[in-house]
TrEMBL record:
Region: Disordered, residue numbers: 1-36
Keyword Zinc-finger: no
Membrane topology designation: Multi-pass membrane protein
Annotated protein name in UniProt: Nitrate reductase
Length: 507
């Protein structure tokens, strides 16, 4: 069964409330079979309770974290001044907010998670392609953030405990106490996710203001070390505003967009619990660009201050905090970094892949099992290598992630907004042979658009420091615009293929 012509007629088996939210009709048997389980089914309207504050707190908790800090401080480390770094990050977050709101719309309207939402465009089976890609990216992020959390325990506890902890015997290039710290932080996160989404919501609510206060404390400390706030603003750009800056600006902008391109796909995993469209729209608009810009501002000032105080920029806040000899300050810094890292890692990098892996085998993999799979894979991708330097972190890892996931975002936006006009059939999202079954469960148009967008956005990318060279050198001019190239290519190609085949998608 394939797509039908657009229609405004009611869809059997579901009801639309006056506020536009849709749920399964009362008395309707919930979807079952090989493509459904309790975690993937639509959230009933009665359980869609998240408010504007919940979404804002979610973003504050996710934005105010060590990895976000290193985004901004990393730009200082590669030559920008505070104005250039803040401008780059603010613009990137305004840009990525657009696909975030567009894909997030399906969450409160239908109560479905990202992998189920992707079935409308990729097919009931084909949705596993973007879901697994997104999940593997999340595994990388989870590993990076867990390494950061373990590093915080190692460095700061070492200052409190002494040389016996810091100078322990090495295994695989790191002290065994560093590996122990990594394992402890890993276990804490798995324990929290095991308790479910409501626990995550409550954790984000109190973690958000705690971390923000911690960032201001670090600014106060560094300004005191530097002799006032003046030196924090006085550090010059090594690039100027000429060609050297703009050459660095575009890949930096794409890297900053790539940082949240993951959430621009799987944001329905959270907005499905939204009380209304207004709650998710205002919550995200107030939470993402404002808090990321503020946190970037704090980060670049502190990093500029470290350059004034220590003669070189210290881009890692954990290593910067470890320079203090005040035990109370160290303990506070340790707790702040741990809360910040827990906040973003659980929300951004465990929730999504848990649903994504569950989507691959709904009968065998639950939400909690999917989270455990993520946690295990995160160790196997060697996150300590990805995070080893700002050049590779921003331009290789984030650039590749942004380019790849931008292609998925383009297909989702084209299908849901431009073709379906936000109309979906909830029952058919779980049903073999329904309108989202396409050919054997796969929509070849989405697959072609994904592959084409991926090749154009990533083909010319530099893979340093992982390896030398580019996969397709002829595409090198596109490499600095990977996210935009991937999104634009897949959106246009998916629309063209769908309309050219005589199909116009509908609910």
């Amino acid at each position: 069964m394939t797509d039908t012509a657009p229609t405004a007629r009611p869809i059997p088996g579901q009801v639309t409330l006056p506020d536009g939210r849709v749920e399964l009709a009362p008395g309707t048997t919930p979807p079952s079979g090989p493509y459904a389980n309790q975690d993937l089914l639509p959230v009933p309207v009665a359980r869609r309770t998240w408010t504007t504050y919940n979404f804002s707190a979610l973003w504050v908790g996710m934005a105010h974290n060590t990895a976000s800090w290193t985004l901004a401080s990393g730009l200082i480390a590669v030559g920008m001044d505070w104005k250039q770094a803040v401008f780059t990050i603010a613009l990137a977050n305004l840009i990525v907010l657009a696909p975030m709101l567009l894909t997030g719309h399906a969450g409160p309207k239908y109560g479905i998670p990202f992998p189920v939402f992707a079935r409308a465009s990729f097919g009931v089976r084909g949705a596993n392609l973007p879901a697994v890609v997104r999940a593997l990216v999340a595994c990388g992020w989870f590993g990076i953030q867990t390494w950061i959390g373990g590093e915080a325990i190692y460095f700061l506890a070492g200052k409190l405990i002494g040389d016996g902890w810091r100078n322990a015997g090495h295994i695989g290039g790191h002290a065994w106490t560093m590996w122990l710290s990594f394992a402890v932080f890993w276990a804490i996160q798995v324990a929290i996710i095991h308790r479910g989404m409501e626990t995550i919501r409550r954790f984000e609510n109190w973690a958000a203001p705690f971390v923000l206060v911690g960032a201001f404390v670090m600014l106060w400390w560094m300004s005191g070390k530097a002799g006032g706030v003046g030196p924090l603003f006085d550090q010059p750009s090594r690039l100027g505003w000429g060609g050297d800056f703009w050459k660095l600006f575009w890949p930096s902008l794409m890297g900053m967009i790539g940082f949240w391109s993951t959430l621009s796909l799987n944001i329905p995993d959270f907005t499905r619990y939204g009380r209304s469209q207004r709650a998710q729209t205002w919550g995200q608009a107030l939470g993402l660009p404002t808090t990321m810009t503020l946190f970037a501002f704090l980060s670049v000032l502190v990093t500029s201050g470290s350059q004034a105080v220590y003669g070189e920029p210290v881009w890692d806040p954990v290593q910067l905090a470890a320079k203090t000899d005040n035990p109370a300050g160290l303990l506070y810094a340790l707790v702040t970094v741990l809360v910040a890292t827990l906040s973003v890692n659980i929300a951004a990098n465990l929730v999504s892949p848990a649903f994504d892996f569950s989507n691959v085998a709904p009968r065998k993999v639950s939400f909690r099992t999917g989270a455990l799979i993520t946690a295990v894979l995160a160790v196997l991708i060697f996150p300590w290598k990805l995070y080893s330097d700002p050049q590779g972190y921003i331009f290789t890892w984030l650039g590749l992630v942004g380019g790849l996931l931008g292609t998925v975002a383009g297909i989702l936006v084209a299908d849901y907004w431009l073709l379906r006009r936000t109309r979906l059939d909830l029952g058919d999202l779980y049903r073999p042979g329904g309108k989202y079954w396409y050919t054997g469960g796969w929509n070849w148009r989405a697959v072609v658009a994904f592959l084409a967008g991926g090749v154009l956005s990533l083909g010319g990318a530099s893979l340093k420091p992982l390896t030398d060279g580019r996969p397709i050198p002829a595409l090198a001019p596109l490499a600095d615009y990977g996210w935009a190239v991937g999104l634009g290519t897949s959106l246009v190609l998916y629309l063209t293929l769908t309309l050219a085949s005589g199909r116009r998608a509908a609910g």
